[in-house]
């Protein structure tokens, strides 16, 4: 059996000086883990189906359907995609557009999604004057105006915060209190509380809720049912999980994916009962 290739082995965007080039990847054909790497070009990762989780700048970023994560050039990053993920990468030459200088998640309009999809069918060395070049220019102009979303989890370079993040990423259902975590990392509860705010900008409770949101979006986009995700995150009931989700994003899981025209069958079935 031939092992699938890593996505980073498929295409080197830095071999072209075009202002923007795009490639589409189906992760049924590639390894789910994309190792730590970086480009001269900035990279926009769009999820057409499924989801991908990126780690960059001491933060974890989730890319649910119809959103994108922007990673500026020169920033080391890695990624993990769900098995059903179909992604489009847009690589942007430094200085080609006034995009953020830091990593962020962006909403992506249907028009941008279609333009990037069309650009992905062009060769990397498309003529600098022609249809593809004009398409790239318009896509970049539109991209600059896209609003930001809050689908990131600050994890910090601090070893103790990173240890808590690693443990809760493996077992997000762990409901240990701040005091219990403080004992595990050999700190007082007050010191850990101050460290968490200083390193992440969030209280421990808000930070863990954001972790749950990131995990939930990834699992739901990957096809898991609301019941399964609620249980994996340690919620006492499905309703408690839905309440948290709605408070954070303004809609239930079913409504959220319907609005983005990316409703997995498992949520469609359960959405009738929300």
Automatic annotation (TrEMBL):
Coiled-coil residue windows: none
Top-level taxon: Bacteria
Protein keywords: DNA-binding, Repressor, Transcription, Transcription regulation
Molecular function GO terms recorded: DNA-binding transcription factor activity; sequence-specific DNA binding
Span of domain HTH araC/xylS-type: 162-259
Signal peptide segment: none
InterPro entries the record matches: AraC-bd, Homeodomain-like_sf, HTH_AraC, RmlC-like_jellyroll, RmlC_Cupin_sf
Name under which the protein is recorded: Transcriptional regulator, AraC family
């Amino acid at each position: 059996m031939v092992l699938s290739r890593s996505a980073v082995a498929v295409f080197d965007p830095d071999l072209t000086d075009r202002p923007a080039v795009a490639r589409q990847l189906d992760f049924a054909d590639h390894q789910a883990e994309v190792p730590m790497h970086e480009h001269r070009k900035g990279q926009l990762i769009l999820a057409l189906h499924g989801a991908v989780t990126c780690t960059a700048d001491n933060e974890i970023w989730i890319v649910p359907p119809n959103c994108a994560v922007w990673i500026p050039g020169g920033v080391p990053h890695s990624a993990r995609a769900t098995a059903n993920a179909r992604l489009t990468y847009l690589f942007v030459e430094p200085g080609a557009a006034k995009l953020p200088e830091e990593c962020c998640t962006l909403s992506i309009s249907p028009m941008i999604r279609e333009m990037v999809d069309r650009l992905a069918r062009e060769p990397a060395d498309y003529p600098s004057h022609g249809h593809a070049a004009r398409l790239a220019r318009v896509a970049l102009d539109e991209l600059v105006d896209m609003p930001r979303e809050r689908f990131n989890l600050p994890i910090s370079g601090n070893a103790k915060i990173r240890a808590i993040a690693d443990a809760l990423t493996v077992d997000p259902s762990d409901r240990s209190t701040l005091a219990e975590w403080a004992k595990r990392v050999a700190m007082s509860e007050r010191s850990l509380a101050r460290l968490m705010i200083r390193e992440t900008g969030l209280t421990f409770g808000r930070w863990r809720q954001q972790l749950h949101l990131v995990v939930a979006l990834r699992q739901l986009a990957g096809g898991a049912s609301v019941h399964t995700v609620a249980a994996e995150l340690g919620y006492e009931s499905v309703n408690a999980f839905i309440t948290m989700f709605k408070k954070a994003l303004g809609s239930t899981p079913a409504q959220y994916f319907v609005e983005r025209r990316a409703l997995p069958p498992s949520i469609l079935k359960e959405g009738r009962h929300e």
